[in-house]
Amino acid sequence: TSENLTILYLGSSDNVAPDERWLIKEIRECLNNTENQKVKNTQIIFRPHPANFKVYQNFEMPGVVVSPKNGQMPKTENAFSDFCNVLYSASAVASINTSGMVDAILAGKPVISLERNEFKKTQTLAQHYIHMRKSNALYATKTPEEFINIFSQLLSGNDFKKIEREKFIKTFIRPCGIDRSAGEMAVLEIEKLVERKNVQK
What we know:
The protein has 9 helices and 6 strands; from the N terminus they run βααββαβαβααβααα. The chain is α/β, with parallel strands linked by helices and 201 residues long.
C-alpha cells in the first residue's frame, strides 16, 4: 500500500556534504505538494553516514525518519541486517555521493543522485560516482521537482535504468562473475602475486 512506500536517503560523509537537512526538506516538501497520493504518502528514511550523524540527531520533520540516530556501520550481524532490511524495502534510494549507492545498485534498487552545485567538487570527481554516471546506472537530478518526477515514474513501473544497473554490476561490481565473492577473488590475486615473486627469485 502507499503507506508502506519509502525512499531510503543515504547520507554522505562530512567532506562530501556536511549538512543535507535543507535538501531533505526540499524533497519532503515536493512530495507533500504532489497530487499523486502514492507519492505524497511516501516516507523518507534518512540513514546518516556513520562518520557524519551528529548534525542530524535532533532533526525532526513529518514524513522523515532519521535512523539510526547515532550512526551505525553495518559491521555486526544485527547492524548489517538492519541496513539490508531498510534497503530492500525501499522503493528507491537517494543520495549525494556515498559508497552505499553501489550497495543499492547491487541490491537491484533504482538510485537517484542529487547533483547540486554545492556538492559538485566532492561528488563528480569521486571515482565510484564517475563510474556510476558513465555507465548510466544512476538517475541524475538537479532539482527536487526532477527528483519527484523520476520517483513518480518508478512507482508507475517505468524503471529505465534497470538494464544499465545490471550491466554495471557485471562490469564494475562483479567483473569476475556474479557468483564469485570479492574475498575469493582477492585471495586468488594475492596468490598470483606471491607466485610471481617466487618465480622472479
